TrEMBL record:
Keywords: Aminopeptidase, Hydrolase, Metal-binding, Metalloprotease, Protease, Zinc. This is M18 family aminopeptidase. It comes from Raineyella antarctica. Gene3D superfamilies: Aminopeptidase i, Domain 2 (2.30.250.10), Zn peptidases (3.40.630.10). The keyword Iron does not apply. One of its GO terms (molecular function) is zinc ion binding. It comes from the Bacteria. GO terms for biological process: proteolysis. Signal peptide: none annotated. Belongs to the peptidase M18 family. Its EC number is 3.4.11.-.
Length: 429
């Protein structure tokens, strides 16, 4: 189903653009490349990390693996400047190809995959899956690749499992092997992917490849009030962030930063994750280039703040008892302020006030989410970033249903509302 753009409704136009973005970003490496392409078109200058740091006024960005950082330096910036940071992540729960990606059972060629993040296993059944990611050749060149429909994990028929509706149990080692061929003359999945990428398989020294659902995004509902897509968690926030950054002018007081990390779904403890150094590298090198010493850097941090933007749970109409009855955010009710007393979210009262100012300036209604006391709360890059940098951090995001499914859903109004709130924050609200 094609996305319907209502000319006088910017929320639908935003979703149409997001649909194109998410379809072109089936892996974190593609997502980072898509963000970089938009920044290039807007005149941002790519920073090579091995070269001297450029802190001249204007837009800059760097790509490190599946992470992308962008920042805009205002005229007259110096040690008295702060940072206004929006954080998100480019990765989503998925199935990742193992180093030996091929196996054979009963004549079928199967893909050996490893579970990445907290997937809803059953949601990956009976879907036409592609594979996407990067190939790295012997000489170090990186080639992005995205196949069409290639694989499928067929569910066992009910005739062979009469108790399936009493509870489906999927062993991740035994039952999540996608079928990709039968009697294929080569039998090598990597050879097939290399051919799609236009490289010789003998030249491939390494790869980071994952499965993705090839079904395109779609609007649905009686008034097309819902939006379904893969990877809403968290490409919705990545797209809202980059579009908001390009919406607004430079803030004369602060450096505006968009930090899109990789590996959030597996703990963030990597060189491109929020627990790693990539954002700190950008902040420290920018501050140093602006003339700040060690004390000046800390003063800049003290003037700074972070909005950690990630998907949050809307109340589920079939399981309302799983939510806190006094905090039941709904789709199309506006973006979320995420609160947790155990600091699984980093929001405190000071941060809540910062978010309220941004939403008020944007003319956006916000909702508050707090977990049911009997159900453990998930977490985000927010507490990790606050702990690493000591900067005031607030957890926010758009409400979604079917989180961590191969195909999630949100309301049509919320992504654009999040974009507007992020833009107001960057504008100094």
């Amino acid at each position: 189903m094609a996305l319907t753009i209502t000319p006088d409704d910017r929320a639908f136009a935003h979703l149409a653009d997001f649909g194109d973005f998410v379809a072109s970003a089936p892996s974190p490496y593609h997502a980072a490349a898509q963000v970089a392409e938009r920044l290039d078109r807007a005149g941002f200058v790519r920073q090579v990390e091995t070269e001297p740091w450029d802190a001249s006024p204007g837009g800059h960005y760097l790509v490190r693996g599946g992470a992308v950082m962008a920042w805009r330096v205002p005229e007259g910036a110096g040690p008295g400047t702060g940072f206004r940071i929006v954080g998100a992540h480019t990765d989503s729960p998925s199935l990742v190809l193992k180093p030996a990606p091929d196996s054979t059972t009963a004549g079928y060629q199967l893909a050996n995959v490893e579970v990445y993040g907290g997937i809803l296993r059953n949601s990956w059944l009976d879907r036409e899956l592609g594979t996407a990611g990067r190939l790295v050749t012997v000489d170090g060149a990186q080639v992005l690749v995205q196949s069409g429909p290639l694989m499928r994990i067929p569910q066992l028929a009910i005739h062979l499992d009469r108790q399936v509706n009493e509870g489906l149990v999927l062993d991740p080692q035994q039952h999540l092997h996608p079928v990709w061929a039968v009697g294929h003359p080569d039998g090598s999945l990597l050879s097939h992917v290399a051919h799609v990428a236009g490289v010789e398989v003998a030249d491939v020294a390494g790869f980071d490849l994952r499965a993705f659902d090839t079904q395109p995004p779609a609007l649905f509902g009686g008034a097309e009030e819902f939006f379904a897509s893969a990877r809403l968690d968290n490409l919705l926030s990545v797209h809202a962030g980059v579009t908001a950054l390009l919406d607004v002018a430079a803030d004369p007081q602060d450096v505006q930063v968009l930090a899109c990390f990789d590996h959030e779904e597996v703990g963030s403890a990597t060189r491109t994750g929020a627990a790693g150094p990539v954002l700190e590298d950008v902040l420290v090198r920018t501050a140093t280039a602006l003339g700040a010493d060690a004390d000046g850097l800390r003063r800049m941090y003290a003037r700074s703040s972070v909005l950690s933007a990630d998907g949050g749970h809307a109340v589920h109409p079939n399981y309302p008892e799983r939510h806190d009855p006094a905090h039941e955010p709904v789709l199309n009710g506006g973006p979320l302020l995420k609160v947790n007393a155990s600091q699984r979210y980093a929001t405190d009262a000071e941060g809540a006030a910062l978010w309220a100012r941004a939403c008020r300036a944007a003319g956006v209604q916000s909702q508050v989410i707090v977990s049911n006391n009997a159900i453990p709360c998930g977490s985000t890059i927010g507490p990790i970033t606050a702990t690493r940098l000591g900067i005031l951090t607030v957890d926010v995001g758009a409400p979604i249903l079917s989180m961590h499914s191969a195909r999630e859903m949100c309301g049509v109004a919320d992504p654009y509302a999040l974009r507007r709130a992020l833009g107001a924050y960057w504008s100094g609200a």
